[in-house]
Amino acid sequence: MSSRRTTTIAGSLVTASISLVMILSGTAGADDQGPGSSKGGKAVDAAPAGVRLTTSLPERISVDNSSEKTAITASVKNEGTKDSGKIRLLVVGFDGLTVKNVQGCSPIDKKNLPDGSNSGFSCSLDNLAASKSKSYPVDATFDPGKTGKICLPVQTGDGKKTYWQQGPVPFGTTNPSPNAPATPLLLGTDNKPVGPGGDALPKTGVGRDVLPLGTAGVALLTAGAAGLWWTRRRPAPREV
Predict the structure, then answer these.
(1) CA distance 162 to 47
(2) What is the pLDDT at residue 57?
(3) Which residue has the higher pLDDT, 181 or 13?
(4) 136 sits in which H/E element
(5) Are 96 and 145 contacting, i.e. CB atoms less than 8 angstroms apart?
């Protein structure tokens, strides 16, 4: 084999290796959702002494503009000094954000979803030790033509108390890119959908576009998330 041919083959191998590294690096970067954030979270009912439960969501997600699919990591953490006992994390979608699946969790029946939500899953934990956390991969879709929110309440195992609730907090962008393969969305940002004229929000219900951000969350917190979730749907006791 000539020296020139050997050099050409070696150069091709180096180029292929560099291309492979670039592809792998690009793939890893696409899955990078940034650090977790508890933005939009608030303690509700008092937790047992020594237990401090919080949640976190990624700072950014990416939505495929053709399939509208996205992936989100939802995490719950016990920042206290004592074990939590039985708890459950709920992952609930609102408006243009629909939760399709949460790994290891069970779907919430539609009749038991909070007002205004479109989907949800319940994740039961027998115990979360002090200083430990548990993360759940979430498969979801996001309609770029709408606003979208997600909510993470942490409740007792029986749902009678809500220790913590993050949201409903929005994901969105103020710089939509309909012609790009994907749209990056930031946590805590109102989505500016592409609509008629480029800046009109589509209607998602009577008066939905004029509701102040966080109204649904305030309603959940004020009424007590567990109470709003289930008591409305329980039949009134019969008089004896």
Answers:
(1) 9
(2) 98
(3) 181
(4) strand 133-142
(5) yes
The helix/strand/coil state of 197 is: helix
In degrees to the nearest 10, what's the CA dihedral of 96, 101, 106, 107? 30
Measure Cα distances from 113 to 18, 107, 116, 225 in Å: 50, 10, 8, 11
Contact of 147 with 216, CB cutoff 8 Å: no
End-to-end CA distance of the chain: 101
CB 69 within 8 A of CB 141: yes
Check: CB of residue 119 under 8 Å from CB of residue 92: yes
Determine what percent of the chain falls in helix, strand and coil, rounding each to the nearest 5. Answer: 25, 35, 40
User: CB-hemisphere CA count at 13 Å for 34?
Assistant: 13
- How far, in Å, CA of 185 to CA of 178, rounded? 13
- Of the candidates 155, 166, 160, 156, the one whose C-alpha atom is nearest the C-alpha of residue 231 is 160
Position 198 scores a pLDDT of 42
* Percentage of residues in the chain having pLDDT higher than 90: 62
Residues 6 or more apart from 195 whose CB is under 8 A from it? Answer: 145, 201, 202
For residues 122 and 106, the answer to whether their CB atoms sit within 8 Å is: yes
Per-residue pLDDT band for 29 (boundaries 50, 70, 90) equals: very low
Pairing relation of β-strands 148-156 and 162-172? antiparallel
Residue 10 has pLDDT above 60, yes or no: no
Answer yes or no: is pLDDT of 75 > 80.
Answer: yes
| Average pLDDT, integer, range 42-52 | 97
The pairing of strands 117-125 and 106-107 is: antiparallel
